Amino acid sequence: MTAATTRTLTLGVIRGDGIGPELVDAALQVLGAALAGVAELDVREEEGGARAYERNGTALQDDALARIRGEYDATLKGPVGLPGVRRPDGTEAGLLGGVLRGGLDAYANVRPIRTVPGVRHALHPDTGRIDHVIVRENTEGLYLSRGLGVRNDRAAADQMMMTRHGVERIARFAFRLAEQRSGAPADGVRRVTCVDKSNVLRSYAFFRDIVSEVAAEHPGVELDFRYADAAGHDLVADPGHFDVVVTENFLGDLLSDVAAATVGGLGMCPSGNIGDHAAYFEPIHGSAPTIAGLDRANPVSQILAAAMLLDHVGLREHGDRIRAAVDAAFAGGGVVLDERGSPTVGTAGTARIVAGLLSG
Ligand code: NAD
Ligand code: IPM
Ligand code: MN
């Protein structure tokens, strides 16, 4: 510790499955470099995921939620889950989405989609700068049925549920975020795009009506609408139009992976799961088991998740420095992605370069 160190940051860490541990190592290295002389990291590991389920019969220890809520400033989570580790009902046993998001009431899943100049991406021709945030409702919608659906050998059903409380709070979150941003890249307009399928389902019409009510409290932000199918198209064909997107849990899950392809792939995309009393930060992607342990995973998603964590704990200046270092690593040609989205210098090499830029 240097004399200038002023605080201790108590960090919950879930290393996760597949590429999780190598990504978390990369992010902790970068965090250490970003916080040198500023804060001491006190890392508290929590076992979680599919391997933890195999070992312990549970994907997360019973008392972990209380620690994440009460003892840690915030939690950094690697991806979890392995497709082979399933329950008798056919769903995966090693996932933590329901446990953590529901258990912590982390209702806002914040998924920034941002061009890093110099990164290879899927858009030909290039449609211009992309900088939007998908705000995915995280505690209800279709996924509220996790573990609650019904199934026999002739039929199966999962239900979608929206509550006024749930939709109001995610809509307010989205409008407040738009007020803090500088608008859509294409026209500078501060905008919230409500994405739903209100042409077909009552639950989505309910969502749209409530988002419209909340919009009236935020006159400085334009409200527009997309049906989710067209939103998928426009996120690819006209991404500069978007500033903040607010949407239901399941749609947000799908559309954020679509949008990731426009900025260099899943390995470029972080997320925050933010509630009023706890938050945790992770990549938007999964455990990519086929490339685990091969030093091929892009750690930028996890590194940028760590930057979001710093924003959340009041260290935004240092989060900004991490984002700038990631940009510089690509702009300088030190990190290059191959056609599969893997950095040619490897996972550890990418972390070294980004950490080096922060220390230098
Ligand atoms: P995935 O996101 O793990 O992988 C999809 C594709 O993207 C694969 O080709 C993979 O190699 C690639 N990829 C993902 N992250 C990458 C990175 N950082 N760098 C380079 N390439 C990367 O999705 P999947 O294969 O559908 O799921 C694998 C497992 O992860 C499943 O068990 C799934 O349930 C789980 N999962 C967990 C989370 C989470 O913990 N938040 C999220 C999504 C999926
Ligand atoms: C995500 C993931 C999770 C989700 C799963 C794996 C629980 O896909 O965070 O995007 O469905 O939300
Ligand atoms: Mn997903």
From TrEMBL:
Record Pfam families: Iso_dh
Domain of life, per lineage: Bacteria
The answer to whether the entry has keyword Manganese is yes
**PANTHER family in UniProt:** D-MALATE DEHYDROGENASE [DECARBOXYLATING]
Its name, as the record gives it, is Isocitrate/isopropylmalate family dehydrogenase
Which cofactors does it use? Mg(2+); Mn(2+)
Q: Where is the Isopropylmalate dehydrogenase-like domain?
A: 10-354
Q: Which residues form the signal peptide?
A: none
Under the heading InterPro entries, the entry gives: ICDH/IPMDH (IPR050501), IsoPropMal-DH-like_dom (IPR024084)
**Keywords, sorted A to Z:** Manganese, Metal-binding, NAD, Oxidoreductase
